[in-house]
Write a structure and sequence with these properties.
32% strand; single chain; 32% helix
C-alpha cells in the first residue's frame, strides 16, 4: 500500500541515550495517540538509527496538505501536555519537514527505511522529479525492498507554535526520498550506488544529499488505537 494520503510530515532528530527509554515511552503511548486522534492523521511510524547512534526518523502520513494548518492540529501544537512540554527540549538537531507527496509506490512500513534529504540543482527540478519518479517505480518491486516515496517540503502559512518555541529552531529538508525494505543490505547498497550524492547529482540533484538508514521501532494507525481502547 502506498502512503495514506497526499501529504506527510517527515522528521529527524537525536535523543540522548539516557533519555531514550522515557522518550520512546512518551512518543509511543502519549504522542502517537494524540496525533492520530487529530482528523486527517492516517498513520504514524518511528524508526531508530541503524548505526547505533541517537538518531530517529518519524513520518506521519496525512490525508491532505491542509491537515498541517488545520485548527485541531494547531490547537494541539499550541497546548502541549505537561509530559510533551518536558520532552520537547530533548529533540536535538530537529529537522521537521511539512510535505506534499510527489510520488508514492508500494509499502510505507517495513523493517528498514532509507531516507535521503536532497534538493534539485538550479533549473533541474522537473528532470530530477521525473528521474526519481521512474526510479521509485522500479524500487518498489525490487527484491529486498517494499516501497519508495518522494516528498517535497512546503511550509504552511502559520505562526510559530508553542512546541516549536520550546524546541528552539527547527531545520527543514527540501525534498525527501524514503525507501522502505526488509533487507538492510539492499538499502545499504542502494545508498552507496543509485542514491549516492554523486549519482543523484547526475540526474539533477544539488550537491550535499544526506542519507540515513533506520530500523522500525513502532507504527500505528487510528484504527489500531481504537481497537486497543475497545479491549480495555
Amino acid at each position: 500500500m502506498s502512503l495514506l494520503g497526499g501529504a506527510a510530515l517527515a522528521m529527524w532528530w537525536d535523543v540522548a541515550g539516557d533519555m531514550r527509554a522515557e522518550f520512546e515511552h512518551w512518543h509511543s503511548h502519549e504522542h502517537f495517540p494524540e496525533r492520530l486522534g487529530i482528523a486527517g492523521f492516517r498513520r504514524a511510524s518511528r524508526w531508530r538509527s541503524a548505526s547505533d547512534d541517537d538518531g530517529m526518523f518519524v513520518m506521519y502520513e496525512l490525508e491532505s496538505y491542509d491537515v498541517l494548518s488545520s485548527p485541531p492540529y494547531l490547537a494541539r501544537l499550541n497546548a502541549p501536555s505537561p509530559w510533551s512540554t518536558n520532552m520537547m527540549p530533548h529533540h536535538r538537531h530537529m529537522i521537521r519537514t511539512q510535505c506534499r507527496v510527489l510520488h508514492t509506490r508500494g509499502g510505507a512500513v517495513a523493517r528498514h527505511a532509507l531516507t535521503v534529504r536532497l534538493s534539485p540543482a538550479a533549473g533541474a527540478a522537473a528532470p530530477l522529479r521525473g528521474a526519481l519518479g521512474s526510479l521509485i517505480d522500479t524500487l518498489a518491486v525490487r527484491a529486498g525492498l517494499a516501497g519508495a516515496h518522494l516528498l517535497q517540503h512546503e511550509r504552511p502559512a502559520i505562526a510559530t507554535t508553542t512546541e516549536q518555541r520550546i524546541r528552539g529552531h527547527d531545520q527543514e529538508a527540501d525534498w525527501v526520498l524514503v525507501v522502505h525494505g526488509y533487507d538492510a543490505s539492499v538499502l545499504e547498497a542502494l545508498a552507496a550506488s543509485e542514491l549516492e550524492a554523486e549519482s543523484l547529482a547526475r540526474i539533477g540533484a544539488a550537491p550535499g544529499a544526506v542519507s540515513g538508514l533506520y530500523t522500525l521501532s513502532h507504527s500505528a494507525t487510528p484504527a489500531d488505537l481504537e481497537a486497543h481502547a475497545a479491549k480495555r
